Amino acid sequence: MSDDLAADCTLTSFDHGRSLRLPALAVTVTLPDRRTLTAPLDLRPLVVGAGADCDLVVADPRASRRHCELRLTERGVLLRDLGSKNGTLVRDVRVVEAFLPPGVAAAVGGCELVVGAAGPAAVLPLSQESAFGEAVGRSLTMRALFARLERAAPTDETLLLLGESGTGKEVLARAIHARSRRQSGPFVVVDCGAVAANLVESELFGHTRGAFTGAAGARPGLLEQASGGTLFIDEIGELPLDLQPKLLRALESRQVRRLGANEWLPFDARVVAATHRNLRARVLEGSFRADLYYRLSVLELHVPALRERKDDIPPLVERFLAGRDPPRTLADLPPGALALLATYDWPGNVRELRNTVARLVLFPELLHEVVGAAASPEPASPASDPPEGPASLADARLRRLLELPLPEARDVVIAELERAYVAEKLRQHDGNISHAAEAMGVSRQLVHRLLLRHNLRAR
Ligand SMILES: Nc1ncnc2c1ncn2[C@@H]1O[C@H](COP(=O)(O)OP(=O)(O)OP(=O)(O)O)[C@@H](O)[C@H]1O
């Protein structure tokens, strides 16, 4: 691969960290019947598989529901197998994770997948801050998100935040509110996933006295209650289909009609909505209305999973430690903790990291049990529940391993050990590869290969 091509598919910051170069790339899949599908690859990871919620849906019986994922990184396009049944192969080698050079084909079931250039690169602004309100983040993807939020927050536009559970959508929504001209107004939260389906309507739109059994008095809905402020509609993907036109009408007309009432009442709330669902896929399968989706997605922002921005782990850990009572610092963590935290994939995202830090402060001796045992051989599925405690972490891991044939399970465990070992040795030697190699009793070349294999950076 020439240097030019390699540079073409990396995320690069320039202009003294003020701008991000986003190469224009397209992923093309050739199906077994030779038809081709193409999708652009941007800051969002692109999932390929047979499931309808994938970004590239391949009609191939040998492809798994969520087969593999491609992600643009500072080092190139990272291809990750998502625990597929038949594996993802590059040059006939089954890969768990590998950088895929442009023009090189990967085999996904019976399909062939290639990444290629698709026009001139885009330039995105990067925030100069490593936080947006309470949300901490110094990775390029978070700073690109912060830059967009800095512009969007002061406007009255409806925003849609997409991201896995625990990525910080609510923290960001609060920060958007705090940076808007509505900051002195209320910030009201409704979680469509938590409210019983038959109550969502009266929660959102309010009701008159006697509108239904048990409605002893009139009550304004949350849209009205948020007047002058912001309404954060969490898990909007769970909003019952029959209520979606009603919300759309309310957003368009800025008026609501309470359940049981005839008159329309004006409200003045800005709406920030969020979901961990792939709303576009839900629109395609008919469980989310296209018109409401287009109304909400005027400004659609993707909040990356924590495994996509491990640079954020140290400042997040620092923030969580500082928030303990009494406040702690990184020095209070057991040696090697940060390096070990970086080896884990965090299916529960920042929420799981926060809980892990809380446990580590209480039980530093459990470092390897709490984090090491949790190191996930399989990338997390967004729908999967994060493990809860040390015991269940170990159980969950064993369950996953038991699904594999013994030789594969052994490989997974060895790969995890290798990664954690190398990361820790490098940390102990301040990222000096020669010293780390000597301490490990291996050659520098092998350390370089291990870094590449495990997507680690020396410093
Ligand atoms: N960037 C961040 N900086 C600091 N804390 C964060 C950040 N992101 C998330 N958190 C913390 O992680 C926890 C989960 O965040 P939050 O509730 O905002 O996630 P979410 O995406 O809305 O999750 P869900 O979809 O499950 O509601 C919170 O305690 C929050 O304080």
From TrEMBL:
Residues spanning the signal sequence: none
Domain FHA: 46-95
Keywords: ATP-binding, DNA-binding, Nucleotide-binding, Transcription, Transcription regulation
Domain Sigma-54 factor interaction: 135-362
CDD domains for the chain: AAA, FHA
SUPFAM superfamilies: Homeodomain-like (SSF46689), P-loop containing nucleoside triphosphate hydrolases (SSF52540), SMAD/FHA domain (SSF49879)
Gene3D superfamilies xref list: 1.10.8.60, 2.60.200.20, Homeodomain-like, P-loop containing nucleotide triphosphate hydrolases
PROSITE patterns per UniProt: FHA_DOMAIN, SIGMA54_INTERACT_1, SIGMA54_INTERACT_2, SIGMA54_INTERACT_3, SIGMA54_INTERACT_4
Protein name: Sigma 54-interacting transcriptional regulator
Source organism (scientific name): Nannocystis pusilla
Taxonomy of the source species: Bacteria, Pseudomonadati, Myxococcota, Polyangia, Nannocystales
